[in-house]
Amino acid sequence: MTNSLSENFLWGGAVAAHQLEGAWQADGKGVSVSDVMTVGGPDAERKITQGVQPDEYYPNHEGIDFYHHYKEDIAMFKDLGLNSFRTSIAWTRIFPTGEELEPNEAGLQFYDDLFDELIANGIEPVITLSHFEMPYHLVTKYGGFRDRRVIDLFVKYAEVCFNRYKNKVHYWMTFNEINNQARFDNDFVVFTNSGLDFKPGENREEIMYQASHNELVASARATRIGHAINPDFEIGCMIAMGPIYPETMNPDDVLLAQKAMERNYFYADVHVNGEYPESLLKYWDRKGFNIERTEDDLRDLKQGTVDYIGFSYYMSAAVHKDETLSFDDSNLMNSSVDNTYVPKSDWGWQIDPRGLRYALNWFTDKYHIPLFIVENGLGAYDKVEADGSIHDDYRINYLRDHIEQMKLAVTEDGVDLIGYTPWGLIDLVSAGTGEMDKRYGVIYVDKNNAGEGTLTRSKKDSFDWFKHVIETNGEEL
Ligand code: BGP
């Protein structure tokens, strides 16, 4: 057992194409689902519009214009000392509608240039193929992943990327937070995850499971093909992890928490073991769900298992069993109660660093494969002082407390951890709200919720702090 992180530990930052690139129509890019989402606000969720409406504000259209600023940004990442950087490829830059016969060369070239710039600066790209987006055309024509024809369209897109970047990218992930859609009551998460736009009266839960299955098959086929293209590729899944605790020691609470974990994390079982857990199949039977699974699908799931689990960790949750909530309740995923032992962020996200150690141990005990923390961070309001400085000690505290727990999981518990890429290291558009003011960055970007600002980048206090953490490979926090 080592007493410190490995020498080649990946210290990075994580972002997603649609939240920072902007340039939504540049060089042949098509409209993606993220391009039709308006800004929300503290009291309102983001709205999904039917196509792009001239009088609406779509924050993703400009993002922080990373498309045109990436060289300057990568220079700051180098100064910070990053040796890795997680971003995604926008599917719509490569296949604008998702159905073209040939990929869009200008889109492919953009990522060639971006990856070259990262590599030239000693930064390894870590790439997600679909981070909360797909061509909007696939939503209007097929209803997103509810239609299995979308499987082949994704696999073709993945294959093009694997071939093109096979000598530049080593770490891949297929779908970002694929399990988020388990909360199918939330229009926004199912739309961003799998392009689902429900019609009144539909059985949302059953459709969500079908879309999830189709996406899992798409992921497995892509993974199998990726390994054939370059056997050195390490291809992972990406799971949104928030451990679900029982509110009390009442066995009913304990069992409810276990059931909620099962229903939220079966996606990892399929990715890692190549098959559905028995408990989920039995749940589908009890509910009378008929989820189409062909022989080929089941074979592909078996053959396309992942090399590591990438996951995001922001918070934990807790559940409480009462007479209104059965173990089979469709709404289990939305039944979280307050955990009074931990504080909350301004957006109500429970801040629980020890939950990260718990999550690392839970994944390790269950799956025994390497892990990669590909998102973690605190969304907060920042105040720019008269001299331009930003004193974000709350962010430093959050990151320090989580890194401490991460280190304990590695050094004391023996977790095999590839790296740590905190979310939104440079401020970007919030996925959940569409706002700029929910900031995660150690790099500040001058832009507000209404889209005003110079887009100038500057360092927050957390920049120098994180730089020192990386320099000492996490020894000095
Ligand atoms: C994860 C997503 C990211 C991201 C982050 C923070 O769920 O993978 O895309 O944005 O959460 O969420 P938010 O932006 O809503 O604060």
Record keyword descriptors for this entry.
477 residues, alpha/beta, TIM Barrel, 8-stranded parallel β-sheet, globular, binds 6-O-phosphono-beta-D-galactopyranose
Q: Could you explain the architecture of this structure?
A:
The radius of gyration is 21 Å and the shape is globular. Helices cover 38% and strands 12% of the residues. The strands form three sheets. It has an eight-stranded parallel β-sheet with strand order 1-11-10-7-5-4-3-2. It contains 14 helices and 13 strands. With 477 residues, it is of the alpha/beta class. The mean pLDDT is 96. The protein starts with 9 loop residues before the first strand and ends in a 6-residue tail after the last helix. The chain has a single domain, classed as TIM Barrel, CATH 3.20.20.80. The structure holds 6-O-phosphono-beta-D-galactopyranose (BGP). Keywords: Glycosidase, Hydrolase. This is 6-phospho-beta-glucosidase. One of its GO terms (cellular component) is cytosol.
Percentage of residues in strands: 5-15%
Summarize the biggest pleated sheet: 8 strands, parallel
Secondary-structure arrangement, i.e. CATH architecture = Alpha-Beta Barrel
In the sheet with the most strands, the strands line up as 1-11-10-7-5-4-3-2
In the residues, how many domains can be counted?
1
The distinct bound ligands, ions and cofactors come out as: 6-O-phosphono-beta-D-galactopyranose
Query: What number is the mean pLDDT?
Result: 96
User: How many separate helices?
Assistant: 14
By CATH reckoning, the class would read: Alpha Beta
- CATH fold field value: TIM Barrel
Q: Order of helices and strands, N to C?
A: EHHEHHEHHEHHEEHHHEEEHEHEEEH
- Give the name of the CATH superfamily: Glycosidases
Choose one word for the global shape.
globular
Rg (CA only): 21 Å
Number of strands: 13
Structural class: alpha/beta
Helix content: 25-40%
How far is it from the N-terminal to the C-terminal residue, by CA?
A: 21 Å
Low-pLDDT parts are none
GO molecular function, one term: beta-glucosidase activity
Family: Belongs to the glycosyl hydrolase 1 family.
Protein name: 6-phospho-beta-glucosidase
InterPro entries: GH, GH_1_N_CS, Glyco_hydro_1, Glyco_hydro_1_AS
